[in-house]
Design a protein that fits this description.
Its EC number is 3.1.1.29. The protein is α+β, with helices and mostly antiparallel strands. It has helices spanning 19-22, 42-58, 69-77, 89-96, 123-126, 161-178, 181-189, 204-208, and strands at 26-33, 81-87, 101-104, 109-112, 116-117, 150-153, 195-198, 214-216, 228-233.
Amino acid sequence: MSDNRTSSADSPFRPDPGARDEAPQFVLPLVVRIERAAPPARTDALETAARAVLAMLTDERSVGDGEWARAMRDWQDARIRKVVRRARGAEWRRAEALDGITVTGKSAEVRVFPPVPLDGWPKDLARLQVSGTDLDDPEPVPPADPAVPVLWLNPGLGMSAGKAMAQAGHAAQLAWWELSDEARTAWHAAGFPLAVHTAAPADWPALTAAGLPTVRDAGFTEIAPGSSTVVADHPALRGR
């Protein structure tokens, strides 16, 4: 497994310019399958996207001398950008034919690909739409299990499903970086169980003050720069 940790002083999610902005910029592409007749549930899509990011970070091709390792290093040396696009039918089949990893949830399928330059997307991914990833939860989301890592969404921000999927992926990645090797091994072995919930407005200030990994968006799309979007509440990181 990789050991790509970063200091908070040079976090790739900081909104202010830093050394990472001087490096060539890459993006991690994620594609969510949204068929007209059977779209995934919103929360399941967010959770599946977060697990997809973790799957990419830990895949043997992403570390050491793996075939994706150079791209992963270049991506993590710059801003940690993620872009979620949608596909269905033949679009999804073409995306599946490209090198990547498909992660399946209860109703969601998300394929994650090794990082590409901002202006160097493969043709079959570049043509996919970013908009149109508005999803709903047809059933109530079960309460958070305190034994499972929870990615808490800011209750004061309205994000499209695609934007929220990218933010959940950011939060999972920050949690991964801060875990001990033992905690990483356990999470990986369990298949990266996690949940995504919108925090209660009254709880959000305490979550952001708890010293847990917190995503502060750079403001490229949808929300204001510096907005705290997600807090990664992993049991192994509580009370440090």
